[in-house]
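Service request form, structural biology core

Requester: graduate student, group of Dr. S.
Request type: structure prediction, single chain
Budget code: on file
Notes: please return the result as structure tokens.

Sequence provided:
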Amino acid sequence: MSVWAIGDIQGCYKSLQRLLQAIAFDARYDTLWLVGDLVNRGEDALAVLEYLYGIRDSVRIVLGNHDLTLIAAYYGIKKSNPTIEPILSSPMADTLVDWLRRQPFLYTDFKLGYCMAHAGISPEFDLGMAHAYARRIEEKLRSDYAKAWLEKMFTNGVERFDRKASEEDIDRYIVSTFTRMRYCYKDRRLDFKQKGAPTPEVRAKGMKPWFECENRKPIELKIVFGHWSTLGFYEDDNVLALDTGCVWGGKLTAARLDTTNETTIVQIACPGAMKPGEEG
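Core staff response, request fulfilled:
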């Protein structure tokens, strides 16, 4: 009865199956934590969703930016593309998208000592705030007016948290932090443009990874996240980063969460479905 967290799959079905074989995953007994970005760019996103839906009682999922893009394409807010069109054309489209939009943005397990969010948790939020704000946007994504609400979310990310801002801007900040965040400045303002690794040159511009932000509000659980392929695998006492660029020809990574000793990591090399610069 093991618990494994897996990095961004992004539609790479064959790599996912190879990794599950490597960790001897058995859906009857084991549990998967998936950090989001299940779809888009990989060779068979439909197969990924169909498989995960088939074992849905054994998976814990948080939504990523690419998952939201799929939901938006389903509603006609965003354009489809060749890697998600098979999902939208599938007889299972309604079922799969409805299942996805009912997934959380934040998942926690106090017994294991971990929580999970696709891009992380805003430096402005403690765990109670993070839960409250996650529930706020989850309710809207699951509502009858989800299409109208989601359309407003696909604009530039809001970089600062302001309780006095409009309801729409607060929602945009929440969605952006849970799904797109990488860097912050000393004043906890976020930067959504920089996507590279935290090199000395980037740090010289005053930017740090969000989990290094000065005066970041403490989170009592270790945060499992993905989203940041150029960061790659990273672990310290507070965070565990698992996006190792499978879709770019990197690796797909699993980390075992239910052990008390040093984290067990299993990785497989991936052939890659895209090259940097081919995002489209």
